[in-house]
Write a structure and sequence with these properties.
Elements lengths: L1 H9 L5 E4 L4 H8 L3 E4 L11 E4 L8 H8 L3 E4 H7 L5 E6 L4 H14 L5 E8 L4 E4 L5 E5 L14 E4 L7 H4 L2 H12 L7 E5 L3 H12 L3 E6 L6 E9 L2 E8 L2 E7 L4 H17 L4 H9 L9 E6 L2 E6 L4 H14 L6 E5 L4 H15 L4 E4 L15 H11 L4 E4 L6 H8 L5 E5 L7 H9 L2 E2 L1
Parallel strand pairs: 1-2, 3-4, 5-8, 5-9, 6-8, 9-10, 10-11, 11-12, 16-20, 17-18, 17-20, 18-19
Antiparallel strand pairs: 6-7, 12-13, 13-14, 15-16, 15-21
Length: about 450
């Protein structure tokens, strides 16, 4: 929502808006010219010709109801964003995992080629300190959120699908419906456009096959030998990583300032879209990728105190959690340990994927599970963070597991557990992000 607002403000459109909480982005938007309120009141929407709403806004919201009563135009967030792409060359990045980082990598790669693309990303780019920008070129890069099926509105010239996996079953119901949604998304790729998919993911591979059979131009990437853009010899050195990238038989060196095999895949997707979808020079694209400094809440270092390093990550579904825990585990040097503080996101996701989340967390040495961050959902009887804690214990008998349902008690528990050489990784889409700074304060250090 803040990304939509920022681009509208940059185009000289009057923007007002409300949020349930006094989150930092409200002050940022106010400084950029928006009128903002904390809390909802039907008076806030008076005079607005168009109302843009997120999926988290319920139908009984007082402002939404008032807008509909007076006949104002109401757009979903994705529709509001799509309206800003008129006359542009949209590039849409979709997938269960890796969307934000891939969108950010592609944006920075294009900037490295001398372009000034517009972009709207689900997280802030570290270098720019913002999640959206009104560019001067005609390329518009957007993170296409599949959570509610709204990603079919963008009609991209280039589409990336990082993976197709069961998620958001509170909306879709089951995996075949999720797959059908991605099929619908691919059908929106413009004639003559390009679909970029990951050859390492079974769901994306199946999507590529069906799209190719329907006449869509498809390019694949991955560590699989039969990919069009092949990755080999992944290497990791602390918080940096790299790989050999082979494109049309030519070997290139891929260097990244972020860790993880999954991020090498994200970078390969960005490379394929920039070079084969938008016609950019491979060397300049690779240089742009090497300059990427990260995205807020994507393996973001928060600080160090008393020999304990704290990192924060937004991972909230099973695939994301497994990838970030695997990456973090590779960074820890014995006798140091990996301590993961995980906050489950949504009761429905916790209920449906507790076992998979437990498996993803199991490589950690110590796991502290918080209670569920409800977000837009109401509590579900019998569903709590205990389900995930039990699943971790079942997946690994060597992992030390703690279930701490009280948010206020978590930092102290972590401080009692941590010792010099440990890496503390806070994980989740909710307010777990505030745990790290508190841990650092209690340890006597400062957050970064």
């Amino acid at each position: 929502m803040s990304g939509v607002a920022r681009i509208m403000l940059a185009r000289g459109i009057s923007v007002t808006g409300s949020d349930a909480k006094d989150v930092p982005v409200l002050k940022a938007l106010a400084s950029e010219g928006a009128t903002v309120w904390v809390g909802f009141d039907e008076k806030h929407q008076e005079g607005a010709g168009t109302i843009v709403v997120s999926s988290s806004i319920r139908d009984d919201n007082v402002e939404l109801r008032a807008a509909r009563r007076r006949g104002a135009r109401v757009l979903h967030r994705a529709q509001g964003l799509a309206s800003l792409m008129h006359g542009q060359r949209p590039v849409a990045v979709a997938g269960a995992n890796g969307k934000t980082t891939t969108t950010s990598l592609l944006t920075v790669a294009l900037q490295g080629c001398g372009l000034d693309p517009s972009f709207a990303v689900g997280g802030e780019l570290a270098r720019h300190g913002t999640n959206a920008h009104q560019g001067t070129d005609d390329v518009f890069v957007v993170e296409a959120d599949e959570s509610d099926g709204s990603f079919i509105v963008y009609r991209p010239e280039v589409a990336i699908v990082t993976n197709v996996q069961p998620d958001h079953l509170d909306f879709y119901g089951d995996f075949p419906v999720v797959q059908a949604a991605y099929d619908a998304f691919v059908r929106t790729v413009r004639a003559g456009g390009l679909l970029v998919t990951c050859a390492d993911d079974a769901g994306a591979r199946a999507l590529a096959a069906s799209a190719g059979a329907a006449g869509t131009r498809v390019l694949t990437y991955g560590f699989s030998a039969d990919a069009d853009v092949v990755l080999r010899h992944h290497r990791q050195d602390g918080l940096t990583s790299g790989a050999t990238l082979v494109d049309a038989g030519v070997e290139h060196t891929l260097t990244l300032g972020i860790p993880g095999r999954h991020n090498a895949l994200n970078a390969a997707a960005a490379y394929a879209a920039a070079v084969h979808g938008l016609g950019q020079d491979p060397g300049r694209v690779l240089a742009g990728l090497a300059s990427f400094t990260g995205t807020r809440r994507r393996f973001e270092p928060k600080g160090e105190a008393s020999g304990v390093v704290v990192v924060d990550d937004y991972a909230h579904n099973a695939g994301k959690v497994a990838a970030v825990v695997e990456t973090a585990a590779q960074l820890v040097e014995p006798p140091g340990r990996l301590i993961v503080v995980f906050q489950p996101h949504l009761y429905s996701r916790t209920r449906d994927f507790a076992t998979e989340l437990g498996r993803g967390l199991a490589p950690a040495d110590v796991v502290v599970v918080m209670d569920v961050y409800a977000a837009r959902e109401d509590p579900v009887p019998g569903v709590s963070g205990q389900l995930v804690a039990d699943s971790v214990a079942a997946a690994s008998h060597r992992t030390e597991v703690h279930y701490v349902p009280s948010w206020a008690e978590v930092p102290e528990v972590v401080v009692q557990l941590a010792r010099r050489g440990d890496l503390v990784l806070t994980v989740g889409a909710g307010d777990v992000t505030m745990i790290g700074p508190e841990v650092l304060r209690l340890l006597g250090g400062e957050s970064g």
